[in-house]
Amino acid sequence: MNRSRHILFIVVTCFSLFASLSTYSQDKQETLKEDVLVFRVQTRLVFLSDLKSYLSHLKDFHCLFSDANLLKMAAISVDQALEVQNLSVGEVQQSPQLIKKIMRLILTQVYTNSLSLSLERDFDLGLPLDKCGLGRFGSWNNELKSLVQAELYMRRGKEKPSKYNQAARQNYYQMLDDKMDYEFNL
């Protein structure tokens, strides 16, 4: 009798383990179906889930810089960019122009990060920190700091275009093409 309990225990345990692994595997497959590599900038791989997380920081950035040169240069509004948060993989694949504009934002961020610009010592910008509820600069996440750094570069940098017309955008992104390695994957 004792031996049959052990056998029954082993059978139930094995069945439970198999059922758990099967459910975990199905959940993982569903997650993988919902995520896709969107683009690569330098060594940074950006998946759809990363892009959606990135865009949540764009709201805070827009609160700080409602007239952001970074957005003007990429020819995108915050509302357009935030549309991506609600899109499925299939819908994102049908929106390559929108995704390319967001890629331009990240391309500029990665480029300005590579320049090792100092942001903290030049941070007296009169930004509406209280209005935006962001607190001290040191408490911000790296993505928001990087967006602000890219915006300051666009406002102060030597490659700053005087106008945000098509020719200025082409010249700016041609300069980045020459300096950066990236690939669009949709």
Say how many strands there are. Answer: 3
SSE arrangement, N to C: HEEHHHHHHHHE
How would you describe the oligomerization state of the chains in this entry? single chain
Question: How is the biggest beta sheet arranged?
Answer: 3 strands, antiparallel
What can be said about this structure in brief?
It is built from nine helices and three strands. With 186 residues, it is mostly helical.
Could you characterize the architecture of this molecule?
With 186 residues, the protein is mainly alpha-helical. The chain folds into 2 domains: 34 residues; 147 residues, no CATH class. Helix content is 63%, strand content 6%. It has a 3-stranded antiparallel beta sheet with strand order 2-1-3. Helix 2 packs across helix 8 and helix 6 packs across helix 8. The longest helix is centred in the N-terminal third of the chain and has 33 residues. The chain starts with a helix and ends with a strand.
Provide the fold topology.
Blueprint (H helix, E strand, L loop, with lengths): L1 H33 L2 E5 L2 E4 H17 L4 H6 L3 H5 L6 H5 L2 H19 L14 H4 L9 H15 L9 H14 L2 E3 L2
Antiparallel strand pairs: 1-2, 1-3
Keywords:
186 residues, mainly alpha, 2 domains, three-stranded antiparallel sheet, 9 helices, 3 strands, 63% helix, 6% strand, globular
